[in-house]
Each structure stands twice: as structure tokens, then as C-alpha cells.
């Protein structure tokens, strides 16, 4: 849409408020709102000022003034606000130089797409993430000098099978057995359906929704694939619709990768393919999984750079409660057809050219989608440019292999600290085309170490009291 189209849409839909949204570096949507009368064509060129020093990972206080520039193509009506509200996603601009801001994650995604085109490898990157999440009924957590705890509850939680609920009607999904029964065992069907309708109201085509493996409300909703930046925009809407629909029903949703002990965590498997001139460059009939050499090299880039990528695609300390050996976790740096214990998988649901893609299973939904999708694309491009061999595929169950069969299989690092070190050592592939900048990578690493790694390292864990109090 053009700015004039946006103004027409606002008039037709009776918008009274205009909401401007952008993403901070860790990955949360931020916003502020304007009166409808401020929606003029000048808004799209002049922008609106805000304090960049108050946003995580952005400016220092002595250079805090920044501008939001609305993208008219993103205009849509908010499905949750009581007052009719038109929403636009924005890019961030430096008001002095009038240059787009190098730390704006959305700008990085746009640069990644432009760089792909410049290489002549392909003209389009398609991305299809599968976001998993939990819906809980209650969440409490706190930590201070002399105490620390979290407490989760869910009407679906199997731990409530013996609770006097006056009456307890049963139908609590068993641990690791919630994929995917019909109601009444699946108590969240109607809520997920409402989430789907909310997503479709803001322009997100949804393919399927279902209960996931874990007890206590693990769910998945799958969007139809789209281009990289557009899909990252949709991930933000996805999370917004999930959280606000859950809240409407008196529940709470989380995209935390591993909130429940000894049950499945939440991943974000990301389907990827590169297209050129309307043709899928990943498809070649007759090869392994009908993959082309381009696709195999792309996988080679993902697997080679996976430890560094994890700092952006599995970027929380909690991510490494999910990515542990022996628990259906995609930590093995190999690829395979159908095998879900490999980091990269080639889905075989269809043999058509259009459906051919690779699925990278390591990411989780705690990531900033703009940064994660861009980083994976850059790793794949590096693999294609350098013809990185991904090795031989592994079609056996990786958890049942004999020790001599696993000794040469690389695995992911086991902590956020380790993957940040990996990113520090291996990020040249991200700098091509000025997609990521040294400043952004340095800022990301410092932010994560200071605000996440160190605070977790400094605090005693509740289970340490069970292990060591009587020592």
C-alpha cells in the first residue's frame, strides 16, 4: 500500500488511533500510539521521534534521538484493541544522517534479502517457521537475596491428575504423550482456533494448528511460508496474537524454550528455500532427497556455522535446557531425510519442486526472528559460495548409534556462553554485504553476557540446595 492507501484504510475502518511498532534487539515488539489526526502523508517521510537510549541494545544516552519511519505495506487493524487502532511496523532512522539504523533488526533482514539478490545465487529467500509455545493458567516467579522460585500451573498438567478440583474430570495429557489427541484431552482447541482467526485477520495465512507433545498446554500453529522480512514481521504478529488471545481467556502464553522439567521444550523449526526466476534452486530430481547441489551447500553452511548461529537462533540461557543430548533435541550437526534427530532435515511430504526445502531444527522461538532468519540465510549463502560439503547424510536414529558411529558427529555447544564465544570467533560470513555490522555483533555479545549469562551464573539454583545443603 501507499501512504494514501493507508489513510483510506484508516477512514474505511474507522481507526481512531495509529499504533507504531518496532522491535528491540532481544526481540520484543515496542510501540507508541498517535491520534488518527496525525496520520498524514508527511508521517511516512518525516517519521516520529523517540528515545533510542531507553530501548535495549540501541543508543547511548548522549545520542538518543531516533526516528520511526512507518512502512505503509504493513498497515492493518489491530484485532485486540477496544478503540479501533491501525498498526504499522516501522524502520528506524538516524535523524542526523537520515540513514537507516544499523542496529535495527528489521533493517538487517532487508539487507540480507538485498545481499542475496546481489550474489545472483537467487532472488528470493522463502522462510517457514513452526513456532511452538505453552499456554498456562498460572505462572509465578521471583528471586531475591534469600529466595528464588518459579511455579507453573495448568489445568492440562498431568501433575494435577490427583488434585481435588471439585470435580477433577481427568483428561490430563500424559508427559510426552500430548501429540495430538482430540478434545476433551486437548482442552485448548477453541483457543488455538481463535488465535488462528486473529492471525488471519491481520493477513497471516495459517496452514494448521494442533496440540504438541508436552503436557500442560504445549501448542503449535504453522504459518504458510513467505519471504524473509515479511515472515519476520509475521512472527511478531504471531506472538502478539497468541499472547493476547490467551490473556482474553484468562490464560498466559510463553515462547520460553524449556519451561517444564523433564518434558519436551518448544522449538522453532525453520523451513528454508532459495528461488530464482520462479524456480526452486533447492530441487533436483534424482539426488538424495531430490536436493540440488545448491541445497546441499546451503546445508553445509548451516552446519559449519551452527555454533555461531546458535548465539542468534537459540539465544537464551534457557535454550540450552532444550538443546541437550539424548532428548529428541536437534544438537547433532548432520542432515537427513525424515530423521528428526538431525539438525537439518529434508521433509518428504511431497515430491514436487515447489515443496522442496530444508528444515533447520535447532532454532527456538525465543530468538529475534529478523536476526535469526538473516543469520541462517547468510550461513547458507556462505556455504553455496564456498561449496561447503555437509558430509554424508545420516538416516539412522542418532540416539541409537554405537559409540564408534557417533565419534565423528559434531554436536552443538551446551550453553549460551559457549555459543557467544563461537559467534565472537566466527562471524565473517555475517558481515558480507554489510548485512550485519561489527558494531551490532559486538553489542549483541556484550548485551547477552552482561544481562543474561552473568546474572544466571551469579545466582544459586534451587536444586543446588537439594544437592549440597547438607554437604
Automatic annotation (TrEMBL):
Binding site for L-glutamate: 264-265, 322, 328, 340, 361
Top-level division of the source organism's lineage: Bacteria
Positions that bind Mg(2+): 130, 132, 212, 220, 269, 359
Domain GS beta-grasp: 13-97
GO molecular function: ATP binding; glutamine synthetase activity; metal ion binding
Keyword Nucleotide-binding (UniProt): yes
Keyword Zinc: no
Domain GS catalytic: 105-471
Subunit structure: Oligomer of 12 subunits arranged in the form of two hexagons.
Protein name, entry field: Glutamine synthetase
Localisation: Cytoplasm
Keywords associated with the record: ATP-binding, Cytoplasm, Ligase, Magnesium, Metal-binding, Nucleotide-binding, Phosphoprotein
